[in-house]
Amino acid sequence: MLDFLGNLKRTHYCGALRASDAGTNAIVMGWVHRRRDLGNLLFLDLRDRTGIVQVVFNKETQPQAHAKAEQARSEFVVAVEGNVIKRQKANPELATGEVELVATKLHILNNAKTPPFPIEDEINAAEETRLRFRYLDLRRAKPHRNLALRHKIVLEIRKVMDEMGFIEVETPMLTRSTPEGARDYLVPSRVHHGQFYALPQSPQIFKQILMIGGLDRYFQIVKCFRDEDLRADRQPEFTQLDLEMSFPRQQDIFEVIENVMVRACAVAGVKAVRPFPHMLYKDAIRKYGSDKPDLRFAMELHEVTNCFPEEAKQKLQIEGNVFALAAPGAASYSRKQLDDLTEKAKSLGARGAYFVKVAPEGTTSTVEKLIGPENVKKLAEAAGAKPGDLVVAVSAKQQIKGTEAAALIAGQLRLQLGEALNLIDKSQWKFLWITGFPLFEWSESDKQWVSAQHPFTGIVDEDLEKLESAPWDVRSKGYDLVLNGNELGSGSIRIHRQDIQERLFKALGLTEEQLRRRFGFFLDALTYGTPPHGGIALGIDRIAMLLAGERSLREVIAFPKTTAAQDLMAESPSEVDRPQEEELELMAAFPGLPPICWHLANLCDRLVRAFDREVFSRKLPVDTHQQQAMVLIATKARDDARGAIKLAKAGYGPQAAGLSRSIVEGAINAEFIMGDPEKRGGAFLKSVKEENLRLARRMTPHATTEEMKAAIDQVMKLQEQSGWPRNLGDRAHKIATPHYGYDVVFSMLSQLVHSSVSSVAGQLHESQAGDWRLRYDRGPEWVDTALATVFIFLYAVANSVYATFNLETTQIAKLRTEFEELHRPQSESAQSGSR
Question: What is the chain's mean pLDDT, rounded?
Answer without folding.
Answer: 90
